[in-house]
Structure formats: C-alpha cells, structure tokens
Amino acid sequence: MTTTPAPTDTLTNTSAHSMPSFDRLTYATDEHIALIGLNRADKRNAFDSVMIAELSEALTQYEADDQLRCAVVFAHGDHFTAGLDLMELQDKLDDNIFEFGDAKIDPWGITGKRRKKPVVVVVHGICLTAGIELMLNADVVIASQDCHFAQLEVKRGIMPFGGATVRFVRAAGWQKAMPYLLTGEAFDANTAYELNLVSEVVEAGTQFERAMSMAKQICQSAPLGVQSLLKSAFEGVHDGEVTAFANLHGYLPALFASQDAKEGAMAMIERREPSFSGR
C-alpha cells in the first residue's frame, strides 16, 4: 500500500476563524481550501462515535468560514477507512449519534443542515461501508488505483444506513448495484469507476495531489455561482426536477447583480483570468 502523506504539517492557517482541535482528525487550511484528515490510522481510520462527531464539526466549521471555498477529505495512514467501529458503536446506536441538528452538517447527508459548499473526497487503500457512503455524499471523488471497496454490512448482520441504499443504486443502476449490496462482495478502483462511484482513478501515491488540483480549480470558480449550482443540483436530486426547475431562475437576479458577475464579464473582455471575491 502507498501511504498518503500528512500534508497538513506544512500548511498555513488562512482562515478567519480559530482553528478547531480534534482527537480523531486533522484540520488545516491552504488558502481557500479546508483540509480534513481522518487520523485514526492505528484503527485503519474506523469511525467511532468521537470521529463521527468531529467530522460533523469539521464540515460545519468549513461551511461557516467565508474564506473557504472547497473542502478536501482525505486519510492519514495506509487506508481511507475500515468503515464503522461496530464494537465501539454497538451500545451507542440508540443515542442518536447519527442524528444531526439543523445547525450541523451530516457527513453522510442524511439528516442535519444541507451543505452549500463543495467537498472533494480522496480515497486510498481500503474503503469500506461508511467510507463508500461518505464519498457517495461528496461532489468529487478521487480514488487511488490501489483502493479496494466493499459495502459489506449484510455480512455483519445489518444494512447500509449512510445513504448507499439510495446513492449506490442511483449511481450504478439497480442491476449493477444490487450484487454488491446484497452480497458484500469486494471490488477494486476500476470497478468503482465503472459503477460511477468515483470521479477519477489515479496512480497510487498521486491521489492527494490530484484532489488538491481539483479543489484549486473549484476555488477559481465564482463562489456564489458554485453554491447556487450545488443548491439547484441538490434540489433536483432531493426534491425532484419539478421543484428544481421551478426555482432555477430565482437564483439569477442575485448572481447577475453580484460583484463576481461583473468581474467575470470584465475578465472575459480583458482576456484574463477572473479574481472572484464571493460578493
């Protein structure tokens, strides 16, 4: 396995807010990018109750920071995640640890506040169960060639409850998704790409670099335009096409009146790259 580097060691905090401190995660910023690292490598980054709460807090912090335009979720160590730490979570499932209030971002997008900013997830090594569901709730997924996946809840006596029953099926199609959901059979990165579960498969060891390149490209886009685009896309997926189309033109007045729209037009006229402010 190719170990993902710990990129946060050399980053500078450019955030307007104080940096959060976590036990199971690392959190840093690189200009307009929030870097959120799963950091429980000795347990193959399995999600326990602490990591679940901290990931929600990190994503909520990212959402609240006006200086940040994209988040990259990655993992320290040899693996993205072994999924849920069922031994630690078994007696806590009745404590609503997967329920997030209206002010919190649910990393799996089931409950809580609907996020408005883009998230890139980069996976390597093994990526099981909740890890697949985490990336299915992302906007862009970069997978290392060495990555191996399995949605194996049925082999543990339970079922996926982080979105795979809907998003895996929606991405891959019923007949292609069900063999993996019903059996828990493992599959490789190329199969994940064929099933539309990941955006790109890259050479092992280059996945973080590629994810950062994508995040920087996203940050060069107009923030208000990106957020409106995501909101419209979420409406289409969650609320249906009729609602999304009915609301579509409602985004335009504020966007056309924004400083970013004026900057975009001037940049086109002056044949230069635009510099957007998010206003």
Primary descriptors:
alpha/beta, 2 domains, 11 helices, about 280 residues, disordered N terminus
| The CATH class of the largest domain | Alpha Beta
For the biggest β-sheet, the strand order reads 1-2-3-4-6-9
Count of discrete structural domains: 2
Tell me the distance between the termini.
44 Å
Radius of gyration: 19 Å
Question: How would you characterize the largest beta sheet?
Answer: 6 strands, mixed
Q: What CATH architecture label of the largest domain applies? A: Alpha-Beta Complex
Q: Provide a count of the helices.
A: 11
Proportion of β residues? 5-15%
What is the mean predicted local confidence, pLDDT? 92
Low-confidence stretches: 1-5, 8-17
Identify the overall geometry.
Answer: globular
Helix content: 25-40%
Order of helices and strands: EEHEHEEHEEHHEHEHHHHH
State the CATH topology of the largest domain: 2-enoyl-CoA Hydratase, Chain A, domain 1
CATH superfamily of the largest domain: 2-enoyl-CoA Hydratase, Chain A, domain 1
* Total strands: 9
> What structural class do you assign from the helix and strand content?
alpha/beta
Tell me what the structure shows.
The protein has 279 residues and is α/β, with parallel strands linked by helices. It has 2 domains: 7-219, Alpha-Beta Complex (2-enoyl-CoA Hydratase, Chain A, domain 1); 223-270, Lyase 2-enoyl-coa Hydratase, Chain  A, domain 2 (Orthogonal Bundle), CATH 1.10.12. The chain contains 11 helices and 9 strands. It has helices at 49-64, 86-89, 130-136, 164-172, 174-183, 189-194, 207-219, 223-239, 241-248, 252-256, 259-270, and strands at 25-30, 33-38, 70-75, 119-123, 126-128, 140-144, 148-150, 187-188, 200-202. The chain has a 6-stranded mixed β-sheet with strand order 1-2-3-4-6-9, with helices on both faces. Strand 3 (70-75), helix 2 and strand 4 form a beta-alpha-beta unit. The radius of gyration is 19 Å and the shape is globular. It starts with 24 loop residues before the first strand and ends in a 9-residue tail after the last helix. The model is unreliable at 1-5 and 8-17 (pLDDT under 50).
